Amino acid sequence: MVSFTLPAIQDNPDGSWGPSPSHVPAQFRDIPYAPYSKSDKLGRVADWNDTDTSRGAGAGAATLGAATLQSGTGGGGGQRGNAGQGRFQGRNQREGQQPFGSGASNAFAYFHVEDEASFSLVDNKTGTAKRGGPLSFARGRGGASSRGGAIGGRGQFRGGRGGQGGGRWNGGGNMRGGRWQGGGRWDKQARLRESSVPISPNWKMLEEIEFSRLSKLRLDVDEPELLSAHGKLYPYDKTYDRVTTKTEKPLQIMDRLRYNPTTSDDPVIQQLAANNTAQIYTTDSILAMLMCAPRSVYSWDIVIVREGDKLFLDKRDGGPLDFLTVNENAMDPPLDTDKESINSAISLALEATYVNQNFLFQAVRESDQAMELGGPNPFHTPEDGDGSELASCGYRYRLFDLSVTEEEDVKIAVRTEVDAFIPGATEQFINIRALNEFDSRSQGAGGAPDWRTKLDAQRGAVVATEMKNNSCKLARWAVASMLSGAEVLKLGYISRANPRDNARHVVLSTSTLRPIDFANQLNISVANGWGIVRGIADVCLKLPDGKYVLVRDPNRPVMRLYAVPMNAFTGEDEEDGIPEDGDEETA
């Protein structure tokens, strides 16, 4: 009969899990031991996917000024469907526990250095998108951690104004801009865009703020106080409400004076600052861009000047805030590979700005009695003429209270603009804007239908497409109208007389909207916008006196705050954007 002998049991006197040092075989004593938890589960022996379980971070929070940027609850990191190590670590992190041995270095990791030269990709199909944990906001130099998983998708790496190259898809033939991969999927390459302002190596980055964190901010602001009003307004021409595609009107070229100086050059704001009316000063266009920042795709920048306890938010003359984008939020926006094309992003931005100005000048009745808002135009001088060529424009300076508690006093003075008024028993201020159609069959049209055939019968489809392709621009218009106190927003539909000619346009129709209702249709949260403004203000109010610039990254949904020299943006070279020596500050 075969005898049975019990195996030797190696007892660990200290009770810890793992081999006792005295019982480790001699051939294994020099190998470092990586601790582990006995409740760990082995999900797979070999994983050829780049699964990073460390992206399943737990719940975290960071504070931007007075508003809290909270990240959500972290799920199990790694690729979805992994029932092994990633799920266990994600559960422990949700419970506030760290997996045993997670901080130890992996001495058994294999580092392949020389093998890279012989590596070749066999399967070129896109891998399954990884679901990472919540983003974390890191204050100070060094910025924030990036999102786990592949970078791309809607709102990222789109071509735009100033972009060069990198905007073409693989493929050719009649399939413009793409390569069919099978299975109902296009293989779209990322578009790399340029920053709206060249980043000098001498600039110091102070903050990096991700848009995903801004969505958590909220601040309710009461009705503002009207400080003063200037300029004159003409009544709106109601005949444009009856224009249809069958009774279109040509867009006229009208020579009028309309001023849009930056904040620091405004004499009324300078007087308000001298009287310590507020701590922050800006204009409605700059403020609307900041409040709608998460919707933006193209790069933009705001110059911030800190003087004592005051902040001045400025724009650069000729910068992105002086122009209107076209189809910025489209899945396939206009390219800039051929900047001379009339359908490039830069050409369309110039065309949209030109169309908006002329439609505003044309849609008022200058022959009727104008409305004087109080003071004269603060920017018009006798050298500019007798005032007969001034466009219909009213400047309303309004004071908003951004205080969170009763103890603090944080106020912002904003120069807002209204374009005309509707006469009646109760006169209403209105803003006039225009959407422009360039060529529904060209690249970058964003799937927009032909306005001449769809605008009268299917206006809802046209408006829905514009809300999708121009979400940021329309949001800025709605927010600026609410900031100015305009009760009505007139939206004109302007199209080219010939799709191949960007100099002649016709007015096809006009819509009448209430800014508040339009903001609800666009899913705009005004409280979130004020929270963004207050958060940025809190960061800047803690900085020393000087000049700073807030830049929207051209390829990632983040904003960066840089400290710049005081003579920056006063005499920068047109080619490389480097400030010239000897320039003085104009702010």
From TrEMBL:
Residues 1-28, 68-103, 132-187 are annotated as: Disordered. Residues 320-334 are annotated as: RNA gate. It is found in: Cytoplasm. GO terms for biological process: cap-dependent translational initiation; formation of cytoplasmic translation initiation complex. The keyword Nucleotide-binding does not apply. Residues 85-98 have a biased composition (Low complexity). Residues 72-84, 140-184 have a biased composition (Gly residues). The RNA gate region regulates mRNA cap recognition to prevent promiscuous mRNA-binding before assembly of eif3d into the full eukaryotic translation initiation factor 3 (eIF-3) complex. mRNA cap-binding component of the eukaryotic translation initiation factor 3 (eIF-3) complex, which is involved in protein synthesis of a specialized repertoire of mRNAs and, together with other initiation factors, stimulates binding of mRNA and methionyl-tRNAi to the 40S ribosome. The eIF-3 complex specifically targets and initiates translation of a subset of mRNAs involved in cell proliferation. In the eIF-3 complex, eif3d specifically recognizes and binds the 7-methylguanosine cap of a subset of mRNAs. Component of the eukaryotic translation initiation factor 3 (eIF-3) complex. Belongs to the eIF-3 subunit D family. This is Eukaryotic translation initiation factor 3 subunit D. It comes from Exidia glandulosa HHB12029. The lineage of its organism: Eukaryota, Fungi, Dikarya, Basidiomycota, Agaricomycotina.
